[in-house]
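For the sake of clarity, the format in which proteins appear in this thesis is described at this point. The record quoted next illustrates the convention:

___
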Amino acid sequence: MFKFAIQNMENQDPAVVDAIKESGESTLEKAKTKAKTKFDQFVDVSLNIAVTGKTGSGKSSFVNALRGLEDEDDRAAPTGVTETTMEPTMYEHPEMPNVKIWDLPGIGSPNFKAKKYLNDVNFNTYDFFIILNSERFMENDIMLAKEIRKRKKRFYFVRSKIDNDMSSEKKKKGFDEQKVLSIIREDCQKNLKELGDPKVFLISSCDLEEYDFESLQNTLEDELPEHKKYALLQAWPVCSAASLEKKINMFKRMTWAASLVSAGVAVVPVPGLSAACDVGMVVLFLTRCYYAFGLDERSLTRLSEKVNKPHLKDLAKSKFVTAIREKALTRLQASAALAAISTVEYFLSLLPGVGSAAAAGISFATTQYLLREGVNDLADTARIIRKEAGLASVH
């Protein structure tokens, strides 16, 4: 049956044939169904991350870091030396509204009851828990982890404010960063023995490029279901060259699905067929790519300030970056406004030999080419910016 279907493809648009093969399905109809499922998961699947731990451990700063925000930014979670979170507070990711990060109340009370706490914070809401502490993990952290495990969800221990520890230790004679990190890690794990030696991730919310932030991302990727992994990779801050490449590869792998969904391909396509193009899907896909790669103005400002190179923002002027920036809004929920036909016409005018074709007449091949060119253009721009920032090496 599969062989017969492939033989029939010889009469079809070669670009459609390629997309069917990439889908791993035997017919266009099956490929379209799979593409719709994949694309819906890519854009809409929710991811709810719970951040909990001892009062004063830096939960709110960590929530802000996951959202790509500074503590002083608009819409940042409030931070302070006293407990600022009295009930579960949800913060949407600024550009990926399907990703929600929950700042949960502190667990430092002497009367802490893990079971009651999880019921009070609506346990079933969250995909996994991050248990944060800026010192060694204590009895309450262990009690909470045991209760989460009993209810069959995952938890991850994060030791925060590592930058503060390093600042203190650097003043001492014979300072050795790796040795200090090993001591901190071993001290944390010593108290967690009864849980079976879980990993402890050492993190600075002020500098995600350092320490174990990338390792935490890799662990979450390995343990999340595939559809949840899409949401994580899109929203997770770019914390290394390797993490950027993962994002790039994910978007490249998704172009076949976005192409089949956005181009109205007939069930039995004929050579030269033109199809209507869902403009909103094309623009949404490339705009997601733009934000995921850290090419938006807020991300570039943060990076340029961190490495003290104000000119980095001037490097984000490639043809696709410019096209998206002219139409991009601060919220992807306003994707209908992004779907102006003029935007796709502008994209098309950038492609050799296409000109300003009317959006309603875009062929499947052109849709696919547009998406691939867009991802490559945005990826190359992101790589150039990281290289100029001195952050180009893949760990």
The chain has 17 helices and six strands. Residues 2-43+240-388 form one domain. The chain has two domains: 2-43+240-388, 46-235. Confidence is low (pLDDT under 50) at residues 1-11, 267-275, 329-341, 356-360.
